[in-house]
Amino acid sequence: MFLLALPAAAIMMAGCWNDNGYDGKPQQKTVEPGTQADFGTIRDGALEALTIHETFDVSQGIIFTTDNGVKFSWSGFLYDSEWNPVTGNVDLEYVEIFDRGSMAAANRPLMGRDSEGNLRPLVTGGEFYVNMTQDGKQLQTWSQYYIEVPGSLTGGVDTGMVIWEGTIDENGDLFWDIFGTGQDRETKAELGIDVENNTYNLFCHDFGWTNIDILSGEQGEKTPLFVKPPHGWDNKNSCVYVAYKGKAGSLAFLDQYWTEEGLFTEHYGWAPIGFQFYVIFAAESDGMYTYWIKEITVAENTIIEVPQSELGTCTREEFIARINALP
Length: 327
Known about the structure:
There is one protein chain. By secondary structure, the chain is mainly beta. 12% of the residues lie in helices and 43% in strands. It has helices at 36-50, 100-106, 182-188, 316-324, and strands spanning 11-12, 17-18, 21-22, 51-57, 62-65, 71-74, 89-97, 111-113, 119-134, 137-138, 145-150, 162-168, 174-178, 189-194, 199-204, 208-215, 222-223, 225-228, 238-244, 252-253, 256-258, 263-265, 271-272, 276-285, 288-297, 302-305, 312-314. Strands 4, 7, 8, 9, 10, 12, 13 and 16 form an eight-stranded antiparallel β-sheet that branches. A five-stranded antiparallel β-sheet has the order 5-6-11-15-14. A five-stranded antiparallel β-sheet has the order 20-19-24-25-27. Helix 2 runs antiparallel to helix 4 (316-324). It is globular and about 60 Å long. The chain starts with 10 loop residues before the first strand and ends with a helix.
């Protein structure tokens, strides 16, 4: 097997973030593995906590400004599944995410397919979910909604940003593709970048997940990452995220799991050797987030082992705060 050829020195053990802080001290209590269902429940709860619910009369449209200063507006026509016009009150679900703590808590990381179909980390200007229903039934529209996003939320506008659309796979994981091509892209979504006013202006009529993003684009020799979870955890009841040091708008995801070896990894090796990352192990135990965060400098074929004795537990709010506090 490939892994048998890896040097023992590649297994890295060092201080980590836990309930004792960034000092590597083990906890006294043993954290037991949770179930896949319970892990899904706390992630769903994190997403619901981010969701804005509004009811409005379709003939009046809707406009509001979020606590982050994002302006949302929609007016036009809505239709049912058979394209019959809808009247009366409809329900809006709206989510916006800018910080990697919320991305990790709700399992909404930033992995996008490049021109060759490889999944690579993205840097975001904001990810959004928009949906409209009536009496629980899905609606559709050709009328565009408008989202004005302050660039200050992600460190200023980047003129290289484009629109991405999100797809949830059978495991509940979110992946991103550039939004359409050619005329299809122009009719479904448009992105205006206002450098003078430091805003992104997103126009879109497709419901679902949309992202203002650019591929992270680090240069240099790349290598795979491998993370070994403690006994009892796998890709059903835990996951591994990777945060770039100094890039608050990026959260990568190790979406592959080698069952025989018990290792999280990714498709082809996108980690640039010599770069500094935070590896974030996330799971659930007794209704709390279970986690372990470690700073690493990427070396070739790095294997990071997560010690069970160093796992921490915390609330959703604490989990988000710990990740957002990473430099």
